[in-house]
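#help-structures
NK: newbie question, is this the right format to request a structure? protein is SixA phosphatase family protein
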Amino acid sequence: MSRLVVMRHAKAEQAGPTDFDRPLAPRGHRDAADAGAWFARQGLVPDHALVSAALRTRETWESVAEGASWTLEPDLDRSLYAAGPETALDLIRLVPDSVSTLVVIGHNPTMASLAQLLDDGDADAELTQQLFSGYPTSAAAVFEHDGPWTDLREGGARLVAFHVGRE
């Protein structure tokens, strides 16, 4: 059984030199660290991370990893910045099958759409309600998937947890 975390970046500043270069707000760093601490309490330790190359997603990863005490170096992917949910799913399908726990950190509306696209509808009603009630900054959906990443399809993963990092 593989685990997949689909996370939206933490709260970012409203302005930056470009949208790609917008940093996290101080609250974003705190919220991402809170999410990391939650991952640690869940015993979630990724062996691969796919992170948009934008500044706010890189900084989200750094704060999450610090909060969780992870030392993994992420795979920074520039295409994830502008990817739609289908493209993001294609990027996940390229992950080696040796990866058992994958964290993906990107942008909305893609991350919310991807999480909803993956959901098989078999989760607890409360979890499903949380998933479909909005995907604020620092939101993370945790899925289980049985099979290789190349076989991951729409409706092909079971939602097992949902958390919004808030300090």
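mod (FA): yep, format's fine, and the tokens are attached above. The longest strand covers residues 2-8.
NK: thank you!
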